[in-house]
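Two records follow; treat each independently.
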Amino acid sequence: MTRKLLQGNEACVEAAIAAGVRFFAGYPITPATEITEGMANRLPQVGGVFVQMEDEIGSIAACIGASAAGAKAMSASSGPGISLMMENLGFAAISETPLVLVNVMRAGPSTGMPTLPAQGDVMQVRWGSHGDYPIIAYAPSSVRETFDLTVKAINVAEMLRTPVFILSDAVIGHMHEALDLPDASELKLIERPQPALGEQDFAPYRTGGDARVIPPMARLGDGFRIHIDSNVHNEHGFPATERHDIASALIQRLCNKVKFYADELIVVEEEQLDDADIAIFAFGVSARAALEAVELARAKGLKVGLLKAMTLWPFPEKQVEKWTRQVKAWIVPEMNLGQMVREVSLVVRGRVPVCPLNRADGRVIEPQEILSLIEKSIPA
């Protein structure tokens, strides 16, 4: 184990290398450029391949091709670049091609404020491509969590054959913290399921109708007949666009495989909630302010706790439901005009107040702002 002082973006690079990523295609963009630079430096050292593409459309396309050839693949960008990736994100979802996309969020929309942080891409990563498809997204609030969640994202992408997002932000990406880097041999890594060489009648999407079964993914060049297509397809990968039964089964299976594994995917931390009257739901850099606000509130004798969500998709419904039965109000601070607060409200269903605290001006939410809202939200 080696102790280093790292940026969040640098921790993402080290985690990707340790978890076996050997292909990265990307295009520089603030505030994610350090990931691209880091991968350009580190991948050749471990026998990997780095390609700077002409744009973000080509970046995700190259990652899909590399993943189909058997490599663990990753790209990184920020909101404008992620927007360009969305069409090919749908291709990765329907073709069940594992890859990891890092979105170091900045203030938008459009070019917005390139150097300033935000949390406005939560719904973009979930619904940005068209149609029904599953998505998984992790949100770190520290350098340590950036490392750990990058490893988890890569493992989950390989395990479920699906694209996975890491939703960082300009503060977390650029902050420095001391980090004990484990040796790669200490990490528990997951590899995608593969068919036995020489397997007869191989079907790259055969599951027997069970969404819990993740079909094996043969590497291009291993001698299997493989057809990868963006259309609704049968178990052999060939288009079945007029078969409504196949379309229904495929789309349901794609979505259900994430639902069935949700308990393994969802990561939260619960801070001082056991006796809380007010709960804060927060993620990313806002969770850091929320934790300090809890301490400030407790010092004033106010019973406040924090549910820190490190998994945003699938949404941690069970955890919100659990604490809704106890608390008298929820507070949801986020650096947007209200995205996660809608998900919290859907679970709460009006049983207790859900109070948003929003900023969309490129500045972080301060602990004192949260404390002020806590004091206003205390039930009479």
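The next record belongs to a different protein.
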Amino acid sequence: SGMATLPAQGDVMQARWGTHGDHPIIALSPHSVRECFDITVRAVNLAEKYRTPVIILTDGVVGHMREVVELPDYDTVERVDRKGPSVPPAEYLPYRAGHDLVPEFARFGDGYHWYVNSSMHAESGFSATGDHPWARKLLQRLHDKIDSNKGDIIDFEEYMLDDADVAVVSFGASARSARAAVRRAREKGIRAGLFRLITVWPFPEEELLRLARVVKAMLVVEMNMGQVYGEVRKAVRQETNVYSLGWTGGELVTPTLILEKLEEVVECGWK
């Protein structure tokens, strides 16, 4: 946020595009202490399963929050083990992918040769900088690996959306305020609901598009100048009107502010 220890959600695009090369990313956003635990477990599992970096996007409110939680028994926690080599060391290529587009993942120290650098590489791991067709093939595989598994990766929460006229889209600590604002709006006769992003990247475009076709408006609430708002607008393809409440300054956006914005949206008559 540029304001030490104060909350913001200004790194949404940094998480997606601040990469070494044009490859996709997985980013998850918890909104509670218990979810910090659950999402960390899921992040590790996704990293192991798809052999890709996974970012946990927290914010200053969640980071400083204290809540009583009941953690699950260790034996009940899901654990995904990486897919190990199916061939002996002499035949192993660390970046050869099968039908699932995920290469087998040897552990360091197990006798498998694994070369790593920061360049476009062939299946061996050695640089393929001058091999343009292979570089394109590698980048396409990295994208397809994530895109073809969105159904497994994307996670979200729906709250009071069954009969909603207006859907609030939010994530992280902002979604906690949004949930309270939705309840207050209902008390005033405004049929509001909440779509909470748990997976921020890859973005739940199809899910938001389906929602846009049944609600009259959407309000995106976030602690930045509108980074997710732009993504929602692209996703819904003008199927509904999308409004923005971008809140900055190192303070948590409050339920009162969100409710006031919801009332403004209603006053617009869904135009």
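Discussion point: Strands lie at 26-28, 54-56, 156-159, 166-171, 192-197, 199-201, 217-222, 241-246. How would you locate this feature using only the token line?
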